[in-house]
Amino acid sequence: MAAYFSFQWHITDECDQRCKHCYIYSSGKHTCLKSMTWEQMENTFYNCVDFCKVYGMTPYFYITGGDPILHPDFWRLLDLCHEHDIKFTILGNPFHLNDQVCRELKWYGCEKYQLSLDGLRQTHDWFRKPGSYDCTLEKIGCINRAGIRSVIMTTVSKTNMAEIPGIIDEVVKAGANIFAFSRYVPSGGDLDTSMTATEYRDLLAVCDKKFKEYEAEGCETYFNKKDHLWTLYQYETGEFKIPDGAEKGMIYGGCNCGNCHITILPTGDIYACRRVAESKVGNVFEDRIADVWVTSMEKYREYDKFSKCSKCKLMPWCRGCPAVAKGTYGDFYANDPQCWADENGELFQEVDG
User: Fold this and answer.
1) What distance in Å separates the CA atoms of residue 281 and residue 31, rounded to the nearest whole number?
2) If residue 190 lies in a helix (H) or strand (E), which one and from where to where?
3) Phi (first) and psi of residue 41, to 5 degrees
C-alpha cells in the first residue's frame, strides 16, 4: 500500500462545548458557525482522492469539527468513505456516543476515536464544561467495546502541566488504547501559559518514567510520544541514535507540515497547519489540492530557514513545533521555545544515571 497522506477535515464548527483553548471559540468573537454543505463535502472528498492519485498516496481522513457527529450529513460522509474503502479517525466529543453509535462507526471503517482530557476533573471541566471529564472517561468503554481504538489527547500548558502524571493514571485505569499529548499554541496575549524549556524537559522525564513503569507492568495503553521534542529527549537519553547512512538533506520524521498532512476547514480553506493561524494556502472549493501542494505549500518546506533547527543534527527527525514558535514569536521558523538544545543540537545538561 502507498504511504498515507492525512487530511484533517473540519466539516463543521458546531460543538457542544466552548473550550477556552479552542481555535474556533477562544477569541469570544466567533458568531458565525460554518458547516460544509453535502455538495461541498462530496467535492472535497474527491479533491482529496484526486490529490492522492496524482502523488501515489493513500488518503486517510481525520474527520473533526467542532464535533463532526453534529453535522446533518455526518453519516452520509462515512458511507462515502466506506464505499471507497477509505479508513478514518474521528476527533470529537463524548456526549453523543453509546454502544450502538460506536458499532455503527466501526462498520463504516472508523479505526480510532479521539477524545480530549485537559486536566483532572476540576481543571478539565473548567477548560470545557461541567460533566465533560466523567463523560469522557465513561465513553472510552463504548469505543473499546465496538473494536475501535480509543485515543486520549491532552493539550499541555503551564496551566495543567502538573496534572499530566495524574491524567496518565486515569487514562490507564479507564482502559484507553492510546495516550498522547501536544503543547498548547499561544495566541494573542496569553503567553503566560507557555512552559520554559527546563520545565518541559522535566515533564518529559517524569512522563517517560511513568510510561516505562506501566509498560513493565504489561499495561496495554500505548503511549504515543507525539511531540517532536521527544526525539531530542530520547537522543539525550540514548534511546534515539542518528541512523548510519542517513542521507543529507532528507527529512525522515518530525513536524508533518509540508510533508504528509493538510487541514481543511468548513469554509473550504486549506491550511498547512491548523495550529498556525496564518497558514492558509488555498481553498478546496476553488483550488485543486494537487496544484496547491507544489505552489503555495512550498514555503513550508524551506528547512534551511529554521533559525535554530537548520543547524541542529536532529533537524531531519525533529524540528520541534513550528506552530508553537509562530504563536510565541510570530515566526514559523523561529526557535521552539521549549527546546533545550543549543543551536548545534548539543545539550545543556547531562542526564542523571
Assistant:
1) 24
2) none
3) -65, -45
Tell me how far the alpha carbon of residue 302 is from its chain's centroid. 22
Tell me, what DSSP letter sits at residue 161?
Answer: G
C-beta of residue 119 within 8 angstroms of C-beta of residue 163: yes
Cell of 18: 466552548
Q: How many CB atoms sit inside 10 A of residue 321's CB? A: 26
What Å distances lie between residue 263 and 8, 71, 91, 148, 309, CA to CA?
5, 18, 13, 23, 24
Q: Name the strand (E) or helix (H) holding 324.
A: helix 322-329
Tell me how far apart the alpha carbons of residues 307 and 225 are, in angstroms, rounded to a whole number: 25
Q: In b/e form, how buried is each residue of 233-269, taking b as 16+ CB within 10 angstroms?
A: bbbbeeebeeeeeeeeeeeeebbbbbeebbbbbbbbb
Cβ proximity of 148 and 102 under 8 Å? yes
| Three cell numbers written together for 144 | 473499546
Say how far apart CA 273 and CA 256 lie, in whole Å.
9
Q: What is the pTM (predicted TM-score) of this model?
A: 0.91
Where b means 16+ CB within 10 Å and e means fewer, 291-315 reads ebbeebbeebeebeebebbeebebb
HSE, CB side, 13 Å, CA atoms: give it for residue 340: 23
Contact (CB, 8 A) for 270 and 281 = yes
Task: For the chain, 353 residues long, give each residue's pLDDT as a single digit of tens.
Answer: 579 999 999 999 887 766 555 555 544 555 567 999 999 999 999 999 999 999 999 999 999 988 999 999 999 999 999 999 999 999 999 999 999 999 999 999 999 999 999 999 999 999 888 999 999 999 999 999 999 999 999 999 999 999 999 999 999 999 999 999 999 988 755 545 789 999 999 999 999 999 999 999 999 999 999 999 999 999 999 999 999 988 888 889 998 888 899 999 999 999 999 888 889 999 999 999 999 999 999 888 899 999 999 999 999 999 999 999 998 898 999 999 999 998 766 665 444 33
